[in-house]
Q: What sequence folds into this?
């Protein structure tokens, strides 16, 4: 959600919530004490189950549609439970989203808090959800310090009768390789000043990811970072669903790989560059490995600046069915 596209709504919302538009948002300050306390209590209850790794109880307290397809949530809990075990969470002020009507909203947008002439302010937020059924939804974000660094655990809860049931769950580290969003934004600006647009854009992407507790939420901070990133976004990198071609010279002649995604990711204590490309077939793993390495070599040959910003590559060949075969190499091993 961009600042420019928010200006009209910002003017309309500057002194009020978005009541009357079918998608209304109430901030914590707008909520009565009973609603605020019930949201906070439900969020802490569910966080306790996440920290214990009790996916069974969490599923029992979820809405029916989520409980019927809980494997993704269960995997997130299992992956992060060791880090969150014993963590004491601090609850941020909750939001209440009200989706009116009788049918699911294809693209529901909630403008929360006070907006200024330039868009979002320090305490505002925008939530964008797809195919949202009518109802009332609470968004509660918890900050959870842990032995493996700080995390944010964000819960979307749907009101059913007098209870708040889990509708979705996000668990995200608040740091990557020991650094927060501000650090990556500062490094992005340094790369930009040196003319390294590709590195700058990738580090802005990491900064935005760390600044947003959950992907359906944007804030003044994420809007500013997005606007900065747009000034350096390279046309020859895949983004926003657009693929790009990478030419690779081989002993058998030239080959072209269609890149579908390229983004940073923390792997252990190192920041690696994740690359995905389309592959017709990955059943021959030895050949796919060679193709993956060829993609790495072509990328560092074309963009030598990547050696300065990343510790290594993870290249994944993805076949038409969505299965992939990945290869990890440290940058120093790519000759």
A:
């Amino acid at each position: 959600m961009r600042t420019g596209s928010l200006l009209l709504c910002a003017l309309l919302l500057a002194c009020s919530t978005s009541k009357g538009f079918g998608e209304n948002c109430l901030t914590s300050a707008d909520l009565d004490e009973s609603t605020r306390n019930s949201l906070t209590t439900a969020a802490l209850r569910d966080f306790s189950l996440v920290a214990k790794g009790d996916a069974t109880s969490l599923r029992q307290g979820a809405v029916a549609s989520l409980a019927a397809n809980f494997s993704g949530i269960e995997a997130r809990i299992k992956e992060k439970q060791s880090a969150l075990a014993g963590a004491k969470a601090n609850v941020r002020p909750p939001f209440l989203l009200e989706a009116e009507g009788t049918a699911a909203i294809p693209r529901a947008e909630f403008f929360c808090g006070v907006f200024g002439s330039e868009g979002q302010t320090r305490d505002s937020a925008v939530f964008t959800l797809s195919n949202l059924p009518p109802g009332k939804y609470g968004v509660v974000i918890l900050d959870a310090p842990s032995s493996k660094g700080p995390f944010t655990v964000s819960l979307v809860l749907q009101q059913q009768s007098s209870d708040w049931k889990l509708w979705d769950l996000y668990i995200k580290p608040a740091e990557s390789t020991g650094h927060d969003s501000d650090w990556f934004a500062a490094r992005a600006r340094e790369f930009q000043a040196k003319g390294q647009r590709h590195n700058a854009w990738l580090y802005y992407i990491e900064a935005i990811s760390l600044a947003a507790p959950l992907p359906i939420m944007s804030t003044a901070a994420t809007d500013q970072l997005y606007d900065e990133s747009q000034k350096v976004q390279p046309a020859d990198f895949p983004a926003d669903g657009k693929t790009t071609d990478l030419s690779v010279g081989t002993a058998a002649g030239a080959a072209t790989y269609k890149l579908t995604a390229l983004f940073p990711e923390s792997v252990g204590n190192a920041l690696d560059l994740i690359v995905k490309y389309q592959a017709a077939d990955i059943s021959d793993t030895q050949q796919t490995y060679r193709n993956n390495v060829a993609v790495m070599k072509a990328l560092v040959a074309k963009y030598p600046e990547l050696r300065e910003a990343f510790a290594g590559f993870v290249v994944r060949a993805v076949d038409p069915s969505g299965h992939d075969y990945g290869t990890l190499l440290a940058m120093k091993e790519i000759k």
In short: The chain is about 35% helix and 35% strand. Residues 1-21 have pLDDT under 50 and may be disordered.
